[in-house]
Structure formats: structure tokens, C-alpha cells
From TrEMBL:
Residues 79-269 form the ABC transmembrane type-1 domain. It is found in: Cell membrane. It holds the Pfam family BPD_transp_1. The chain crosses the membrane at residues 20-40, 73-102, 114-137, 143-164, 190-215, 247-268. This is Sugar ABC transporter permease.
Amino acid sequence: MSTLTSRAPQDTRGSWKTYLGLAVVLFISAFPLYWMFVIATSDDAALASYPPALIPGDQFLVNLREVFTLQNVYFAASLINSVIVAAVVTASTLFFCSLAGFAFAKLRFKGNNVLMFVVILTLTVPNQLGVVALYIVMGKIGWNGTLLAVIAPGLVTAFGVFYMRQFIDHAVPTELVEASRIDGASTLRVYWSIILPAVRPALAVLGLLTFVATWNEFQWPLITLGGTEFPTSMVALSDLASGNFVIFRRVLAGAFVATVPLLLLLLLGGRQLVRGIMEGALK
């Protein structure tokens, strides 16, 4: 006769060494942002002072006014362009990648595995190799120098398709899809009513990663929008840092403003990001 032994719940709290290590990692990670804010709120003398200044100054509004009123750098318009590009690319990526991931994971068609292999294979090709060809194509269409040239290449990504395919394959039972088909649901109805509600954590992770990557994109916007008056925020920051004499308090003030939307997004969606990563790991 077997006996059941009761086990006391284990204490999952970390020791003081764990919290000390986390505090050190947090300090190292956050200090560059804090130092950026310190210089953005200080005058030119603070950058050259020794020991370096560690307390924010009172010149933040003055530095911001200089950033937003420069004649050769339209920083406000550049921020608006970055918001437009990042929002459109993120929404498009979520839609197309989840739709393609659903097709690869749950629909049976000829060449499914071959096409998925081709998608994965594109991840091994560096983006820099396609810049020249992409610039020529955008020039033929007449989109160079416009936001369309920045938006179009990011409407769907191979990583997004692969990520959504893996998540849908494990998160949604095939029997559920087949049962909905028996009940008369169309493919789009299955996608809208069954797939999307089940993969919300994955969509949150992909959306955050896509928005941050698009916002921070520099190379391609510089190539196609570098000579225009209204580029994206990253290109505008490079314009602030150009010239024979760089005013770092002005550059870091602009960098801090360009970082605030990402910090707010991560604060608002951080819980969904962790949840999506943990659910993907468990599945």
C-alpha cells in the first residue's frame, strides 16, 4: 500500500545576494540613461567638469528649445515621422506575420515546409547586402525620399512569421481548428475568432520588439531620407551630432526626448512582454 507524503511548499524568495546582483545589473543598465539626462539638463561646463556632474541641472528646457528651434534640423517633424513609421510597420507586421504564421502552422498546402525553409533561410542574409538593390527598387517606384520607402521594407518580417508560426503551432490545438471548420467557419473566421485571441501574448511581444527596432532603425532611413528636410528621429539625431563642433548637451537632450516614447511603451507593455516570453518558453 503506497503512502502519500506531503511536502511543504518551497520558499522561492531569493537571498540577499540575488537582490544585490539584480541591483548591480539594474544600476549598470540604467546609468547611461541617467547620465544622458544629467548632461541634457546641464550646460557646456558640466560635461568638462571633474569630477563629473552626477546631479541633473536646470537647463533642460533651454536645451530642448535649442533642439526644436534649429533651422537645419526639424526635430519635431522627425519625431512625428518616427511615430508614423513605427506605428504602421508594427500594425502591418502583427497582421501579416500572424496570418502567415497561422497558414504555416495549421493549414495544409503543397510546399508548406519548403516555403517555411525559405523564410527561415532569409534570416541568415544580412540586411546590408540588400541595401543597394532596395535603393534601386525604391528609385524605380519613385519612393526614395518619402516615408513609403522606410515603411514598405518592414511591412512583414521573416522573424515575425517564424515566431508566430511556432507559437500558433503549440498554443492552438489542431482539433480546435478542425472543429470550427466542421461548424462551418471560414479560414478568416478561424483566424479572427480562434487564432488571434489565443496568441495575444505573442502579439504583444512581437509588437514591442517591432516598434523598438523600427524606431531605432538608422541605416536605411539615413540612406533614403538623409537628404530630405523631414527624416526620422534617429537621422535627426545624427544631424544634431554633425558638424565641426558638436554640442553634446543639445545632442543628448534630443536623444532623451527620442528615448521617452520607448520607455513609456516598455513600462506600459512590459508585463505583456514578460508574459509572452514566459508562455512561449513553457509551451
